[in-house]
Amino acid sequence: MKPIQVGLLGIGTVGSGVFNVLRRNQEEIRRRAGRGIEITMVADLDVERAKSVVGAGVQVVNNARAIIANPDIDIVVELIGGYGVAKALVLEAIAAGKHVVTANKALLAVHGTEIFAAASAKGVMVAFEAAVAGGIPIIKALREGLTANRIQWLAGIINGTTNFILSEMRDKGLDFDVVLKEAQRLGYAEADPTFDIEGVDAAHKATIMSAIAFGIPVQFDKAYVEGITQLGAADIKYAEQLGYRIKLLGITKRTDKGIELRVHPSLVPSKRLIANVEGAMNAVMVNGDAVGTTLYYGKGAGSEPTASAVIADLVDITRLHTVDPLNRVPHLAFQPHTLDAAMDSLPVLPMSEVVTSYYLRLRVADQAGVLAKVTGILAGAGISIDALLQREADEVGGEGSTQTDLIILTHDTREGTMDQAIAQMQALPTVLATITRIRKEELN
Amino acid sequence: MKPIQVGLLGIGTVGSGVFNVLRRNQEEIRRRAGRGIEITMVADLDVERAKSVVGAGVQVVNNARAIIANPDIDIVVELIGGYGVAKALVLEAIAAGKHVVTANKALLAVHGTEIFAAASAKGVMVAFEAAVAGGIPIIKALREGLTANRIQWLAGIINGTTNFILSEMRDKGLDFDVVLKEAQRLGYAEADPTFDIEGVDAAHKATIMSAIAFGIPVQFDKAYVEGITQLGAADIKYAEQLGYRIKLLGITKRTDKGIELRVHPSLVPSKRLIANVEGAMNAVMVNGDAVGTTLYYGKGAGSEPTASAVIADLVDITRLHTVDPLNRVPHLAFQPHTLDAAMDSLPVLPMSEVVTSYYLRLRVADQAGVLAKVTGILAGAGISIDALLQREADEVGGEGSTQTDLIILTHDTREGTMDQAIAQMQALPTVLATITRIRKEELN
């Protein structure tokens, strides 16, 4: 049988990885897939650079539509990124009857419903293992490995840049800005790191996993997104003293009222495996009612780890492209006609309805009665305290006035309730700076 | 479409879990599979107990062959265990055109070649996610998630009983025999724990993963198997002082000469995630040339975790039972006609050809010259020393004679070379007890 023919849209870091791994392991992959898989066309604006990567024998064009128009191409791999031209090209490829593999989490988190509907109507597959957590086969685990389960929650370190920054802040006791510059110098953070450090990239990935876990449409617009730019070295240190580490987690959880979907820094017990995932590594915990808690760990980015996921999708499509679409795994794990009803019964909750526990740090005047006022406000709101840490007072400013840090861990409470309590505490004249609030997840 | 019909052979712990989870999550599972999955027949020698589990509406028989003979049954789930009647029934089910799901690692590790050949000839699937690491979808990850990769090695904690025992030995400083009794009392170890504590169960699972990882037939007879019965609390304590924990690992590795396939206690750096997998939990590390190192963690046994894996297989078969067998994933991940050639080019190596590093503990007389003799023997064999720990001498016996423990960590060396060096050291009159040798794996 002749090899299945693949066209790459974009041959940057990931595209080069896909090309190199497919060529290096072609015998191994053919022994698995039962058929060769060959990249026969590449589109890139920089034709010369693309040619230097793929060498002779692969057609390089500067117009992606030449690939989509080529009837010999079976699968189009979209590695352009973003919502603009990538969206148009993916939809055109689908319309042309091509199967699509993409690593584009932003596109799927925002326009997934439209794209998957188009693919279903045309009977083609859109595969996206590479969109979440790089080489870790987490999409396959969720879509196929845990199908017996009612998934209860998942929580993941799904952005390597921010995990690298947080690891460095903890190891070296440095503040965010300093470590960000180092990460940029080392290539762990981009020149414009906004999507990573503000949590947007993690929220794209959490949105996709939420849909697959619970059988709801992708709803990025309803995700709560908070990054790591406000974290200070002091909070990381205090968390450590209390037995926690701070990680940027993408979390989605089933509750009686609906689905929580949120990305924010979180205190995690130091003894959990996921608290010990360091540097640019990724990990996702998934809790199902039958299986209990499972964890998946590996490189979440980079040329060949991401290529590993792209090629796994190519192999799956090579196996299944001739079968009836009903015999394939649905794009979002659940039969597509059931998604809308599930959206009604499982709405994504506003952040004010999320229930979790909290770490609070208050900069207070070191004088009698402060603690009573603060704990009184919490008690009045029905928020119970799990642990309290009062630091020795620092001398600051003139006239012997002193300040101190008051750190409070709470039990579970509704975010809206906590918002009100924080506003009340913030209004106290003895609370001298903006209160730091970090959510805490026990993950058990 | 009418539900796909499943017959259970055996309804003990796992079978009950399969029945209960399938019923509890039937809507969720139907939304994924696109079709209902129902257990309509159960065979068990204890018909009354079986009836009390499944209630009315499910036919209970005491003869498994009645299920195999029933033309309405699409899939047979074998949960009997062992090589005897289970083998006969699996082969009969295949011959009757049934798809088979099994959790039986012993059967597949020993008779897999025969069983998979029969299934391929008949065009049916034999699925076995539950045979390795319970609910962790490690078979799916290896067979489908990492298809891009040339797998280099994998190492797993794949027996919960022994991991529980080792965790307790470390936590409480107790010796093996004491903890085994406790584990039996708590139900973590069976009345006859031989298969677990001697490493046989782990070797069955490692054998299956080795075949899938490297594209070779299952070759349990060539696995090296060593259990944990000889481990003492002292070794666990010394390992800890050197920055290691001791875990029973199933390891399989690709080398220039062939495949290593071995189960034995191993020192693992304490900072590795897998070193922190405690109690009855399982975890498998997989290293591929593209993806790097990945890890999969979860419950390796128990009623519902194992049921989670069995049902995932039922869903896969429900999707794929009507397609051409060529469109399915091959049983052992690689096209079956390629396995025999791979066995020739990738032979499973005898243990004497394995290259690893070592922890050695020698009980020696506390007198001048002992260290020089021991290190001289190692140097003579070309074995270099990574670290050396000499304990303070203990007073033992009369006349002021003292003994001490000498602990040596070596760099990589061939097992056969180490065997000879140990024999030479053992022959020294100043070496007073049997030398303890534990292999050490850096896993990086």
From TrEMBL, chains A, B:
Q: Which residues bind NADPH?
A: 105
Say if the entry is tagged with keyword Amino-acid biosynthesis: yes
The pathway entry for this protein reads as: Amino-acid biosynthesis; L-methionine biosynthesis via de novo pathway; L-homoserine from L-aspartate: step 3/3; Amino-acid biosynthesis; L-threonine biosynthesis; L-threonine from L-aspartate: step 3/5
User: What's the top EC group for this one?
Assistant: oxidoreductase
Q: Which residues are recorded as binding NADP(+)?
A: 9-16
Q: Which PROSITE patterns match?
A: ACT, HOMOSER_DHGENASE
- To which protein family does this belong? Belongs to the homoserine dehydrogenase family.
Cited PANTHER family: HOMOSERINE DEHYDROGENASE (PTHR43331:SF1)
Name it: Homoserine dehydrogenase
